[in-house]
Each structure stands twice: as structure tokens, then as C-alpha cells.
């Protein structure tokens, strides 16, 4: 029988789920930006520049960067966003007490384009279904209700 979340952890799961949802969408979006930037850089030799001679925001040849290199910025922001995503992944995984391969699958969402969006929908649906079934079983079980005097 797989492990179930602890009773004391149930109130923390909804907040962890929201944190996971937000970090998943942000990390997935940054990963798509990073992939587009890598294509521009390695296929066309262009990097994204902010405030340079070519205008406010422009793709310029890699050897002629003069202002802020947004390509490097996207890379760094995605890296730190992925660290936050891993923390959110670990938090929901540990609260739900899932097996370790599931943690690894969710972690892949930050490095495989589009996977975080699919996993976000799947994980949220799974956790919400579990919480709903747990709430329904608690309402049906009269022994779980304590009488007060």
C-alpha cells in the first residue's frame, strides 16, 4: 500500500500546491524563452540586447554586444527559477509522500520544454482529487468527528 499524507500535513498541502502551480508555469515559460534564445544564438549567431545601438530591445550579432545581454539574463533567471521549482516539487512530493521516481519525473518538467505545463495540470488534478476524496471520507466517517461537551 502506498504511503498516504500525514494528517498533520493536510492543511499545508493546498498552499504547497499553489506554490507548485506558480513555479511550474514560471519555470516552463522561462524554459521556452531559453530555448528560443538558444536557437537564435546557435542557429543564427544572435543574442538579445537591451538598450543598445540597435534600439531598446534587439537581436544583435554575438560579437557586437554593447549593452545589457538579456540572453545571459534569461539563462540566469531560468537557472534560479528552476531551483525554486525544485523546492516546490520537493515540498509537494514530501507532503504527499509519493515515491522518489515521481519526484524525478516532476523535476524533469523544468528541463524538458512544455513538460512542466502538462505535469502541472496532472499533479494539480491528482492532489485536488486526493484532497476531495479525503474530505468526503472524513464527512462520511462519524468516528472522525469528536463530540464536544
TrEMBL record:
<feature type="transmembrane region" description="Helical">
    <location>
        <begin position="100"/>
        <end position="119"/>
    </location>
</feature>
<keyword id="KW-0812">Transmembrane</keyword>
<keyword id="KW-1003">Cell membrane</keyword>
<keyword id="KW-0472">Membrane</keyword>
<feature type="domain" description="DUF3817">
    <location>
        <begin position="19"/>
        <end position="124"/>
    </location>
</feature>
<feature type="transmembrane region" description="Helical">
    <location>
        <begin position="67"/>
        <end position="88"/>
    </location>
</feature>
<dbReference type="InterPro" id="IPR023845">
    <property type="entry name" value="DUF3817_TM"/>
</dbReference>
<protein>
    <submittedName>
        <fullName>Integral membrane protein</fullName>
    </submittedName>
</protein>
<dbReference type="GO" id="GO:0005886">
    <property type="term" value="C:plasma membrane"/>
</dbReference>
<feature type="transmembrane region" description="Helical">
    <location>
        <begin position="12"/>
        <end position="35"/>
    </location>
</feature>
<keyword id="KW-1133">Transmembrane helix</keyword>
<dbReference type="Pfam" id="PF12823">
    <property type="entry name" value="DUF3817"/>
</dbReference>
